[in-house]
Write a structure and sequence with these properties.
Number of strands: 10
Helix content: 25-40%
Order of helices and strands: HHEHEEEEEEEEE
Structural class: alpha+beta
Oligomer: single chain
Number of helices: 3
Shape: elongated
Largest sheet: 6 strands, antiparallel
Distance between the termini: 28 Å
Strand content: 15-25%
Strand order of the largest sheet: 1-10-9-4-3-2
């Protein structure tokens, strides 16, 4: 099993850092161009004084008010562009962080503490004959031991505790939400027909592998699921529970 290498928070920080670097480079470029223009103007004035010619510009008036400096059109456009870029970078960076940063309240992308106890979750799975679904975390909990699974210490090592394993609801094909079919006792994708057995292992359809997983942590009766790190599903051909469909397919 392999894990997605970059987290959403790292990606968000990288985007904001890139936008800030672009803004700083543009600002430095504008500053350098302004200094060069000022140096060129000063050099022209010095050359004019050395040759006895009047420096460019209107003659100073001792009695009258000082002439107002007129902002060049190029400077105005450059300043407006930099201000717009700064506002866009601040808004986009803030929105990106708000969207991608792990939810400190226990939503998707963080370690989620389930409201039901371990015994209650197992009881609900057994009574309803379907996985325990937690929408806010976008995952199913299955009782892998009750399904007769034999890969707890091999392919699923580190993903199962007290028999429970968490399956990401997203299809491994194109990311559709995969519901559980009560009739067949399999997971069946309504988009393109990919099918997975009760342990989320590939059985039929275009999916390249089994359903993705999350690590489960149990402390006493408390059940936690770490949705901050997605573990890729088992490859095609993996079948640790040897479960045939128990009825007609829903899809």
């Amino acid at each position: 099993m392999s894990t997605v290498a970059i987290s959403s928070s790292t990606f968000a920080v990288a985007i904001v850092a890139l936008l800030f670097a672009v803004f700083v480079l543009l600002l430095l470029g504008s500053f350098v161009r302004s200094r060069r223009a000022a140096s060129t103007l000063a050099a022209a004035g010095g050359q004019a004084r050395a040759t006895g010619l009047a420096a460019p510009g209107p003659p100073p008036s001792a009695a009258g008010p000082k002439p107002r400096r007129v902002l060049a059109r190029r400077d105005f456009l450059r300043g407006g562009m930099l201000a717009s870029l700064a506002i866009f970078a601040a808004q986009f960076g803030g929105a990106t962080l708000a969207f991608l940063w792990p939810n400190i309240k226990g939503g998707f992308g963080s370690v989620i503490l389930l409201p039901d106890s371990l015994d209650s979750i197992k009881s609900q799975i057994a009574t309803s004959r379907q996985p325990y679904y937690f929408g806010a975390g976008r995952f199913y909990l299955i009782n892998y031991e009750a399904l007769g699974g034999t890969g707890a210490n091999t392919i699923y090592q580190g993903l199962i505790e007290e028999g429970l394993m968490a399956l990401f609801q997203k299809c491994a094909h194109l990311g559709c939400r995969v519901p559980f079919c009560q009739q067949s006792q399999w997971f069946e994708c309504p988009c393109h027909g990919s099918k997975y057995n009760g342990a989320g292992e590939y059985e039929l359809g275009p999916a390249p592998q089994g359903m993705y997983r999350f690590a489960v942590k149990i402390e006493g009766q408390s059940v936690k699921v770490d949705t901050s790190s997605v573990v890729l599903g088992p490859p095609r051909g993996t079948n640790t529970i040897h479960q045939s469909p128990e009825g007609p397919f829903c899809v």
